[in-house]
Design a protein that fits this description.
The protein is an alpha+beta fold. The chain has 16 helices and 22 strands. Helix 4 runs antiparallel to helix 5 and helix 7 crosses helix 8.
Length: about 450
């Protein structure tokens, strides 16, 4: 087992890894930018090392500085969390060259599945159903338009190195295609340093359902059920739950087996997530694979009673999975709400600033993963998420009622947050009936009076 692990990340996921390490008796090293000096993960780790200025490109996205910190602290392994360098194959190779274990998959798996176009080709080779689209990336608007016309509008243009909804544009006809194609490429180049895009058929009003998988270094891969991530805004997930209120048991088993088959086809190791679109008829299509721990992994932990972060560490240390597929059971329902420092009244603009009064919800069936506290200043340099609130219970009704209660308790003064918006959704009949598709948020905002989800200045 490892003696010391460096966490190459920030915020709540860094704190989550520290907690898992402590339960395993492993020392931790936090790295932080100048803006994060007062963040909770810095205070909670056994050691902390500053790796640069506030901007991510000068700190959390600098492999050389992270490797140098790891060597100074004499760590055995690095946990990348999610985002930043978590899906950077070159960084994995640099860790290996420094004789440091990377807690995640091998670089080959990251390359094959991290590039969306290549992941699609890999899935097709494994006989996994995919959304009709281009066979690879498209260099010119002319050739891309030909593909779009062949598969039929509407289509979605996607950055091959994309994530978080960036580098994605929908074209409903040939007249708008050129504009959306150029916009997707420009945004992708700016966000990822890679402007390559591909085109897929746009499945209207689908469910976005993902399967959590876990593989060890001895050839075993299992899945731990699904999460329904259909409630999104600008392709970014806002609410996740498991199990999905839409899937039948037979469809769940079929999709789970498909996820495992694809992971086995690339000899996948550690935690990963296979993402699918499911249409109203129950047809499902592979979208992409995230070769890392997900933001919403806590949903799976609460419905299966399996600690995914601990399992990541154990698998990376070479231990065999002591899980058999037949023994993995869904024991309860869980719902997660991402709490963002954003102002719904200003089109959900980020709202950095200093938190005044802060009260975290609690009670039976409530979990909060967060790195903020009263007096903490949220920096403007990073993602606006300040916490993940999870409510769980014996069934979906109980989880919904607990989430509504917990959101009512959650108090964050001094900044705007999405708490009132999420609380309104918990009472929405469409959401409570399990009818949310990926178009749910637009529909909810169009039919719901603003005063319901904009209760005024909560600061």
């Amino acid at each position: 087992m490892f003696n010391k692990i460096l966490i190459a990340n920030r915020g709540e996921i860094a704190l989550r890894v520290i907690r898992a390490c402590r339960e395993l008796g492993i020392k931790t090293v936090a790295v932080y930018s100048q803006a994060d000096e007062q963040s909770l993960h810095v205070q909670m780790a056994d050691e902390a090392i500053c790796i640069g200025p506030s901007a991510s490109k000068e700190s959390y996205l600098r492999p050389d500085r992270i490797i140098a910190a790891a060597e100074i602290a004499n760590v055995d392994a690095i946990h990348p969390g999610y985002g930043f360098l978590s899906e950077n194959a070159r960084f994995v190779e640099q860790c290996k060259a420094a004789n440091i274990t990377f807690i995640g998959p091998d670089p080959d798996a990251i390359r094959r599945m991290g590039d969306k176009a290549q992941a699609r080709q890999t899935a097709m080779a494994a006989k996994v159903p995919c959304v009709p689209g281009s066979e690879g990336t498209l260099d010119t608007v002319g050739e891309a338009l030909k593909v779009a016309q062949k598969i039929g509008f509407p289509v979605i243009i996607k950055a091959t190195a994309g994530g978080g909804g960036k580098g994605m544009r929908i074209a409903h006809n040939a007249a708008s295609f050129s504009k959306e194609f150029d916009a997707a490429r420009i945004e992708a180049e700016k966000a990822f340093g890679n402007g390559a895009v591909y085109v897929e058929k746009y499945i209207e009003e689908p469910r976005h359902i993902e399967f959590q998988i876990l593989g060890d270094r001895h050839g075993k891969v299992v899945h731990l059920g699904e999460r329904d991530c259909s409630v999104q805004r600008r392709h970014q997930k806002l609410i996740e739950e498991g199990p999905s209120p839409f899937l039948t048991q037979s469809l769940r088993e079929k999709m789970g087996k498909t996820a495992v088959k694809l992971a086995e086809s690339i000899n996948y190791k550690n935690a990963g997530t296979l993402e699918f679109l499911v249409d109203k008829h129950g047809n499902f299509y592979f979208m992409e694979m995230n070769t890392r721990i997900q933001v919403e992994h806590g949903v799976t932990e609460e419905i299966t009673d399996i600690d995914l972060v601990k399992r990541q560490i154990l698998v990376a240390a070479g231990e065999k999975l002591d899980l058999e597929q037949k023994d993995i059971k869904i024991v309860r329902h869980a719902i997660e709400v991402r709490i963002n420092a954003e102002d719904p009244a200003r089109n959900f603009a980020p709202c950095p600033g200093t938190i005044g009064l802060y009260y975290a919800p609690g009670g039976h069936g409530v979990r909060l993963d967060s790195h903020v506290y009263g007096g903490y200043t949220i920096p403007p340099h990073y993602d606006s998420m300040i916490g993940k609130l999870i409510a769980y219970g014996r069934n979906r009704q109980v989880a919904l009622d607990r989430m509504y209660r917990a959101l009512g308790e959650y108090t964050v003064k001094g900044i705007h947050t999405t708490i009132p918006f999420a609380r309104a959704i918990m009472k929405d009949p469409v959401f409570r009936a399990g009818g949310a598709t990926t178009k749910y948020i637009e529909d909810f905002m169009a039919r719901t009076p603003k005063e319901i989800w904009l209760p005024g200045d909560g600061r």
